[in-house]
Write a structure and sequence with these properties.
Elements lengths: L10 H5 L7 H12 L3 E6 L4 E8 L4 E7 L5 H17 L18 E5 L2 E9 L4 E2 L7 H18 L30 H16 L1 H5 L4 E4 L8 E4 L2 E8 L6 E4 H10 L7 H13 L6 H28 L4 H4 L3 H10 L5 H7 L7
Pfam families: APH
Subcellular location: Cytoplasm
Function: Catalyzes the GTP-dependent phosphorylation of 5-hydroxy-L-lysine.
């Protein structure tokens, strides 16, 4: 079987350059398009320009100005998901799109670099999960929040733009083409997962529940209450959404709870939280251990491949590599039966 190298769906937008928007221009754009005056502060962002806009009455918002290479269809897809959640699952804590003065969810700015899409969103206060002390109660609540988000997205009929997303577990075998970049001491483990994934293709293709999934439910995208750091108060970053098996979303979220000494307890709590809102089908349970290994293998392979391509950004690219590798080692022999030992009511939930 021949495999093509993985390609980010928005590869051009990730490498595009543009003239930065001045704070004065950003403020003027908000005033003209949304009718609000206030102050603007630039925030760090990887693929667009993001600002904290504080209205004159003190209300904070997030202003995002897409880079000129961004596919408008991708942003429309994200906007559609947020609007769907606002209508279908208002209790799910996600940002809300602020309509323009014309009642639109976004506005296209004419700039020297070409058209750039501007959006204003409500600001979600909270502490990012990765900055808080982990614990079983936190893992349980994060797992339930993921299930509730998935239930909210279940009826969303939007579809992502054509093309593959590099971080879509469904396309794990595309990594075969770049697996040679993995260090020799990790070749056997990552190669075994890729071979296991290929053998499981018929079972994966037969998974019955498919929908739009968040696909990036990680501790950098989950906000917790600073006064109660086990309580989820926000979910952000919908830029990696795909249409895929529902259980893939669980594999992504759970994969970030597997790298500590108490990984079994945290994984058990996460699954209990998820199952309290949404049970799994037997065929989903059967492939979940593999999907967890596949996600962790993706993190290892993509990091080593991309750090070889972009050595100047190695520290940033490799920031999650060590934890992904440790997680993969922790669950290298995890089976469906092992999952059921972690969560005895897994099949009955």
């Amino acid at each position: 079987m021949t495999h093509s190298p993985p390609a980010a769906r928005a590869a051009d937008s990730m490498s595009a350059t543009w003239n930065p928007t001045t704070l004065d221009d950003a403020r003027a754009a908000v005033a003209a398009v949304y009718g609000h005056d206030g102050t603007v502060k630039r925030l760090s962002s990887e693929r667009d320009e993001t600002f904290l806009f504080t209205r004159e009455d003190g209300t904070p918002f997030v202003l995002k100005i897409a880079n000129p290479a961004e596919d408008p269809a991708a942003l429309q897809f994200q906007d559609g998901a947020l609007l769907h959640l606002e209508a279908a699952a208002p209790a799910v804590p996600v940002p809300r799109l602020v309509p323009t003065r014309a009642g639109a969810p976004s506005h296209t700015l004419a700039t020297a670099d070409g058209p750039r899409i501007m959006r204003l969103l409500t600001f979600l206060p909270g502490e990012l999960q990765y900055r808080t002390p982990p614990g079983e109660k936190q893992s349980r609540n994060v797992g339930r929040a993921l299930a509730e988000l998935g239930l909210g997205l279940e009826g969303y009929d939007g579809r992502p733009p054509a093309g593959k997303l590099m971080w879509d577990i469904s396309h794990t075998l595309d990594l075969v083409a770049v697996a040679g970049h993995v260090a020799p001491e990790r070749q056997a483990a990552t190669g075994a997962v890729l071979a296991e994934f290929e053998r499981a293709l018929p079972a994966l293709a037969a998974l019955p529940r498919r929908q739009i999934i968040h696909n990036d439910f990680n501790p950098h995208n989950i906000l917790l209450d600073p006064a109660e750091p086990s309580k989820v108060v926000g979910i952000i970053d919908f830029g990696d959404m795909v249409h895929a098996p529902l259980v893939n979303d669980l594999a992504v979220g759970l994969s970030y709870h597997l790298a500590t000494d108490d990984w079994a307890a945290r994984a058990s709590a996460f699954l209990e939280g998820f199952l309290s809102a949404r049970p799994l089908a037997p065929e989903e349970i059967a492939v979940l251990p593999l999907l967890l290994r596949a996600r962790l293998t993706m993190s290892v392979v993509i990091a080593e491949w991309r750090s070889a391509l972009f050595p100047e950004n190695r520290d940033y690219i490799m920031r999650n590599h060590a934890t992904s590798w440790r997680g993969l080692q922790n669950i290298s022999d995890l089976t469906p039966a092992g999952l059921k030992r972690l969560v005895p009511n897994l099949s009955e939930a």
